[in-house]
């Protein structure tokens, strides 16, 4: 069954009322939905609603809720990915898509010394990519895309929320089992093309035991590969 995240206002007693023009077009024209088709609507609070499409008009689609159940696909370990903004927007989109599929809870774009961008354009498009990846991977929530932060501010934010791990080439491996037990939320920092600068590494060290360095192996990985590998290592 096709799955769609919808707003809280869409749920009205035992019905789901769709008035979003883009979603109407997707269901009615792209997917060629018809009366009697079954779909799943999600409330972004961890519940999903199996529903039957019962009426179509130009400005509204109505569906009858048949069954409500809790979505159990969310990871107990919360991952917040502090990802340096990539030179290519395509790479950043890939990171958002794949890490959403893997279970990341939120994304924080980070501006570092070696970033070639200091902002993310097309935020609406990026949020759409995250939403579609969450639907495709049968998640119960849509991860948040938070505002950009410079590297120091990002470290301060993470330090106030339990610290985290900084992926840095050729560092010793850390004991992930211990890290998981100690922290329900883990903040992961991934550098840009070219990695973190020496100055940034010293800044990380200035936070003491709030942050630990994590090696992703002997080889030097692309930033988009590093993000995926880091999330997989921690969650799986």
Q: Which blocks of ≥5 consecutive residues have pLDDT under 50?
A: none
| Number of helical elements | 7
Total separate domains: 2
CATH superfamily of the largest domain: SPOUT methyltransferase, trefoil knot domain
User: What form results from the Cα inertia axes?
Assistant: elongated
Q: What is the subunit organization of this protein?
A: single chain
Largest sheet: 7 strands, parallel
Order of helices and strands: EEEHEEEEHEHEEHEHEHEH
Descriptive notes:
The protein is an alpha/beta fold and 236 residues long. It has two domains: 3-70, Ribosomal Protein L25, Chain P (Beta Barrel); 78-235, 3-Layer(aba) Sandwich (Alpha/beta knot). Helix content is 32%, strand content 28%. It is built from seven helices and 13 strands. The strands form two sheets. Strands 7, 8, 9, 10, 11, 12 and 13 form a seven-stranded parallel sheet that branches. Strands 1-4-5-6-3-2 form a six-stranded mixed sheet. Helix 2 runs parallel beside helix 3 and helix 2 runs parallel beside helix 7. The two termini are 27 Å apart. The relative contact order is 0.15.
Name its key features.
alpha/beta; single chain; Alpha/beta knot; 236 residues; 32% helix; six-stranded mixed sheet; 28% strand
What is the strand and helix layout of this fold?
Elements: E1 3-5, E2 11-12, E3 15-18, H1 21-30, E4 38-42, E5 47-56, E6 61-70, E7 78-84, H2 89-102, E8 106-111, H3 123-136, E9 144-145, E10 149-150, H4 151-159, E11 164-167, H5 176-182, E12 185-190, H6 198-205, E13 211-214, H7 223-235
Parallel strand pairs: 1-4, 7-8, 7-12, 8-9, 8-10, 11-12, 11-13
Antiparallel strand pairs: 2-3, 3-6, 4-5, 5-6
Helix pairs in contact: 2-3, 2-7
